[in-house]
Design brief:
two-stranded antiparallel ribbon; globular; Rossmann fold; alpha/beta; 291 residues
Length: 291
């Protein structure tokens, strides 16, 4: 379905965080990207397409509540969660939902620089549509062959890639739709997430498989977040590793884990290369701290 933007409306950059397998850290990545952009003085809207789990929505709500409780000036994105018509949509229902989603994105694009969309951890019509609208597609992937299965078929004996899997095929189709419509394809980034802090044969094999697959499917593969409890602790207060690391903000005494998590997120954001999309600002620099 085409995204028709009137000539007098500014076209926001659409960042979609997608993976049809749950538990890959999509909402954590989406929240950190959104807050990083806001700290770079960009106007950001966030959109949650998972009307069942609503993890991204709850994350934003937790941040708003914590800001109210502590009277902290936390950045809060303009957030919307999109509710599908029904659990068992007909073709007409899907068409109506798709039209409403495109109109919602058009409306947000008129007043924001970036739109960050979190998609469901399952196959859905709206998820597929969102992928076809992406300027940047980020696919978090837990660092294991269990999760690699969503992207590729792997030879049991050699552990090398033998072909694309269902999600990769869907992304390829969505990128082709975008290319046909707008003469550009999404910048696809596969983010290795929840990585072990200790090297292992599994990590090396996953790395080799992703190298093979990146050439086959034309994506950039970057290292993401280590398996840290601290990222789960941030969620209940809606915080990110980019917020001030002090006791008042965190609600607890900061630790080395907080500092390490922040450095990890800063490295990740630089690898995403969003700085070129937000000129005149340092993407991970908090302007209030610099003042």
């Amino acid at each position: 379905m085409p995204l028709e933007t009137p000539a007098n409306v500014r076209r926001a950059r659409v960042i979609v965080v997608g993976n049809e397998k749950g538990g890959s850290g999509k909402s954590t990545v989406a929240m950190h990207v959104a807050i990083a952009l806001m700290k770079a003085n960009q106007s950001v809207a966030t959109l949650d397409l998972d009307s069942r789990q609503k993890t991204f929505t709850h994350y934003v709500e937790n941040r708003y509540a914590w800001a109210q409780d502590t009277e902290l000036g936390l950045e809060i994105p303009h957030h919307i969660y999109f509710v599908e018509n029904t659990d068992h949509p007909t073709a007409d229902d899907e068409a109506a939902d798709g039209k409403a989603l495109v109109e919602q994105i058009d409306a947000l694009a008129a007043n924001h620089d970036f739109i960050v969309i979190d998609t469901p951890g399952r196959d859905s019509y709206l998820g597929r549509l969102a992928h076809s609208l992406a300027d940047t597609l980020i696919t978090p992937l837990n660092d294991s062959f269990v999760d690699l299965d969503v992207l590729a078929a792997v030879d049991r004996a050699t552990l090398r890639v033998t072909g694309a899997s269902h999600y990769s095929q869907m992304v390829a189709q969505a990128r082709q739709e975008r290319l046909s419509r707008d003469a550009m394809a999404a910048d696809w980034i596969v983010l290795r997430n929840r990585m072990s802090m200790l090297g292992s044969r599994n990590m090396r094999c996953v790395s080799l498989a992703l190298e093979d697959l990146s050439r086959l499917l034309d994506f950039r593969c970057i290292e993401g977040l280590a398996e840290r409890v601290i990222f789960r602790e941030f969620y209940s207060r809606g915080l990110t590793a980019l917020d001030n690391l002090d006791a008042r903000t965190l609600g607890t005494r900061p630790t080395l884990s907080h500092v390490t998590a922040r450095l990890e997120i800063e490295t990740l954001l630089k690898a995403l290369n969003l700085t070129s999309l937000a000129p005149d600002s340092g993407l991970v620099e908090d302007k209030r701290d610099a003042a």
